[in-house]
Structure formats: C-alpha cells, structure tokens
Amino acid sequence: MKRLFRALLISMLISTAALAQSDPLPSWNEGPVKQSIIQFVHAVTTPGTDFVPPADRIATFDNDGTLWAEKPLIQGLFAIFRVHRMVARNPALKNQQPYKAVIEKDKGYFEKAGLKEIIHLFNLTHSGMTSTAFAEEVQLFFNTVKHPTLRTSLYQAIYKPQLELLNYLRANGFKTFICSGGTVDFMRVVSDTLYGIPAEQVIGSELKYKYVDSAGVNDIMRLPGMTTFNDKQEKPVNIQFHIGKRPILACGNEGGAGDVYMLRFSQGSPYKSLQLIVNHDDAAREFEYGEKDNKSLNMAKQYYWQVISMKNDWNTVFP
Amino acid sequence: MKRLFRALLISMLISTAALAQSDPLPSWNEGPVKQSIIQFVHAVTTPGTDFVPPADRIATFDNDGTLWAEKPLIQGLFAIFRVHRMVARNPALKNQQPYKAVIEKDKGYFEKAGLKEIIHLFNLTHSGMTSTAFAEEVQLFFNTVKHPTLRTSLYQAIYKPQLELLNYLRANGFKTFICSGGTVDFMRVVSDTLYGIPAEQVIGSELKYKYVDSAGVNDIMRLPGMTTFNDKQEKPVNIQFHIGKRPILACGNEGGAGDVYMLRFSQGSPYKSLQLIVNHDDAAREFEYGEKDNKSLNMAKQYYWQVISMKNDWNTVFP
C-alpha cells in the first residue's frame, strides 16, 4: 500500500513536471494568440514546407510598451536622473533652462517650449561624454531609480509573458533582437540582464558618434544630434542595415504606430512569418491607451496580425 | 609480424590525427605571430586574471586585403559586372558615360574625371533597386565572375590561414564579425559561405535606404549616396553602433591605413586584447604593396601590434 502510494506520488510529480515542461508559455492564457505562436514555432522548426533554417530564424521585438512598460518612458526617467546628476555636480545649472523646469517638475515649460526644447534636453543629458562614461551612468540609473507608478525596481517593469516568449523562441533556434525607438547604447546596458539579448543584438536610435584617440582618450565621444530615429519606416531600414534578413517573427505594440512597418517588413518574408502586436487594454494591471486613428489595430485586422490583449492573453503581466 | 605492422600503422594514423587536431592553425608557420595568437586565446579562455567571459569575446576582421585579396577590389569587379548587365538590358547606355568608359576599359576617362565620377559609377551600379534584387545581382556575380589575376573562382580568393583563425576563434567561444569598407549588403550575400560569418555579423559601408510599402512593393529601396563609409575612424564608430563592445581581437591590413583606428579601439579594451595587421609582402604568392607613409606598420611598432608577414607567417595563402 505504502509502495503503491509512493509510486503514485512519483508518477504525479513526473507528469506535473512534464506538463510544466510541455507549456513553454505558462503566463499566456490558452487562446488563439498563444495557439498561433506555438503553431508557428512548430511549423518553422519541423522539416516540411514551412521549415526555416536556423540561420534565418530572426525575431525582432520593439522595447517600449512591448517588452517593458512605457508609461512613463523609461529613457525619459533617465533624462531626469541625468539632470539631477548634472545639477549635483554643478549647482548653478538649476537656475538655467531646461534644467530648472526638470528640477521644479514644471511640465508647462516643456508644453510651451515644444519638441525642440525636449530634443535639446535629450542632447544635454545624453551627449558630451564618452560611451564608457555613458554606460556607467545608465548602469547607475537602473541600479538606483524606482519605477514611479509600478513602485518596483526598473528591472521588474518588464513583461513576464514576453520573457517566456523570448526564451521559447531561443530554445527553438531563433536569434532574438530588440528593434526599438530607444537609443541603442541605453538599452544594451541592461538588455542581456533583462531579456537575455546581447548588446550586439540591439537595434535602436542613436546619437552622432565620433572616435577620439588623443590626449589619453581612446573612446567614442557622444555628440548632440541623432543619426537615426529608429521608429516607423526607419525600423525596416535599420533591420536591413544591422541584420540584412527579414524577421520571420516581429512583435510590436499599439500606442504610437511605431511598429507597423517593422511588421509589414516581416510579412514580406519569403518564409512563413508571424506578426504580433501588444494591445494595452489592461487598466487594472498595466495601462489602457490607444491611438487616435487606431492605425496599428486597423492594420492588424487588414493584414491578419495577431493582437495580444494584455487583459485576456496574459495571466501575469510583471515578474 | 603482420599484426605488429597493423598495430604500428594504426598508432601512426592516430598520432597523425592527434597532431593535426592539436594544431588549430596548420597554414600558419611556427613563429612569434602564431605563438601570440595561441597564447592570447589560451589566456582569455582559461580561468584566471586574463579570462574574458564568452559574451565579450568579440573579434572584428577587415575584409579587403585581410580576409580576401584586394587587388583589384572585388566590389570594383562587381561594379563592372553591373555595367555589363545594365548595358545588356539597355544597349543605348554603352554610348553614355561612365558606362562607355567601363565597357571600353578606358581608364584614362576615370583618371581625368576623378573621384566624383567613380562615386557616380558606384551609385549607378549599386542603387535604384530593391535590396532583394541587389542580393540576387551579387549572388549571380559571385557565381559567374572569375578573379582576373588569380584566375580562380572568387570563392577561392580568400586567405586560408584566416579561415583557420576564424574557426579557431569560434571554437573558443568568440563571436566573429567583419568590419570592412565594402558595403554591408554586398559582403553579407557571401559572408556565411566564405567565412562562416552570418549576415547580421557584417559591418560595412552603406548606401541610403528607404522602406517602401506600396504598389505591390514591400522592400528596402537602395538610394544613391552613402550613409556611412566604414573606414578609418568610422570603423570604431560603427563597431560601437552595431556591437556596443570593444573587440578583444581586431585584425586589419596595411595598404590604406584603414584599420589602424579599429585596432586602437580594440586596444582600449579593459580586457587583455590582441591586434593583428596583415603585411602584403608576398609578391610571389599574392602581392607586394604598402603605404607611402608606412602609417600602419609604424603604428604597429609603436603600439606593439603583431604584424602578419604573408611571406613568412603563412605556408599557404589561398585554399
């Protein structure tokens, strides 16, 4: 009797383990989106008409609102962090704009001054230093600043279901890339820790760089001004430049219609491909927001992309 | 007796195999350069003070004159190939410059017209088509055109010792990249076949791109004009943009001093690093050429880079 009980217990443990193992996406609810992902991965990895050689299993993910929360933009928090660091080092700055407005949380100033002043703030906080110094600032930011609304570490502001998806894809021979509007040297400081995506697989916006090798400096200087703003039609352009292959899986989010061309580019692959778009419809656990013209969701309908409802498709949002 | 002979033969075969296996660089002659490579790889992969985590084992190689022969420039041969293709499709072009000069092998025309006309020819032959069409042209070129002086397939114009080095590095956990002045979409069509380097690990010069998704076209259009000419100080800039890590091994060649800043950037790594520069000193088996000011070799001396003498360090040049 005791032996039977033990045998039963063991077999139960084994089947639970097997079940856990058989579901690579435990934070995803059963439904058409999860099914489409699993069917797609099965199709492209199984010998047959839809098989894709491992070298061409490229997956690209947007970052803001797709892999981590974007309300507020985490890189915006970094700009504020930088202002405080710069003012601490040089207190006179706190009487100068745009530092003053940041320190005093004077949103009206930026509303009045417009985009030009926001770009100016971006340049002030992101340039004028070496790449090495910038990476140190970014690391310090992630290690000290908390998310203002989620009240967690920034390392916890990422979507758990997406982490599972990234791991699932990699376990099936995919090479996973970030392709985001955030600047590349900002994201790549933490991309490996957060998502298991190495620095060289991060595509993003970037400032002007200049190589300096003189007077004891051997580094890339970060200059004001952008060389590329990796959004909308620039995403396929930078994917071509960096990867040179169309992603067979592309995942973005609705909110600013920044990802629709990356998804269209993916859809032009000669291979079977899958396009996913995260819908921010979960006011309770994350946020609820959309586009005025509903462009992303309209295109999703037109082109048969899978829309991920955070509310319905994810049983867990944050880790 | 027969048995003894058989046993001896087997043991000889085994030890020959073991010997072959123990030398990862059989086309390299014994000497300080080969020793420096093997000692370096051993140091960075062995637990201890010089150990480098696999994720940071980045190696970058120039292409023209470093991985394949650059007399003449293979991408120049492609421009000529393209002119012939364009004229075949539209015979009227053969009476127009610069097509006429190419067809008639009129070098004087380009010497007189100068760099501007060469850039114009480059744009005419490399732009005005989709990335997909361009890749097909490049593939056709490599499959049909022979090397004019080596009299071999272009696939044979690569340096065998460098192939061994690339394989040796990868076997030791390195990620190998091309970082060359050639345009990225030209090299990456063959980089995997030639060197085992996937498209996404090729850094190069590039034209302007524009993403088009209309009228049945869903592709990257190649426009005239360069976004980056990946040479000299631009190499560290593009390494930073694409990889975001300093290479711990960088290999270039003397001839145009195009690689010295890539090597300096590598040398600025906080890790132990190795810089290599190919010296074209082998008129018999390849070519003999140098720089008027000897900049690369002077810097090699100043900064303790290893100079690879094709004549002395390589027992075989081409496969």
Automatic annotation (TrEMBL), chains A, B:
Q: Which UniProt keywords apply?
A: Hydrolase, Signal
Superkingdom is: Bacteria
Matches recorded under Pfam families: HAD
**Protein species of origin:** Chitinophaga jiangningensis
The protein's name? Haloacid dehalogenase-like hydrolase
| Keyword Signal attached | yes
Q: Which InterPro entries match?
A: HAD-like_sf, HAD_sf
Please indicate if the UniProt record lists Signal as a keyword: yes
Q: Mind listing the GO molecular function terms for this protein? A: hydrolase activity
Signal sequence extent: 1-20
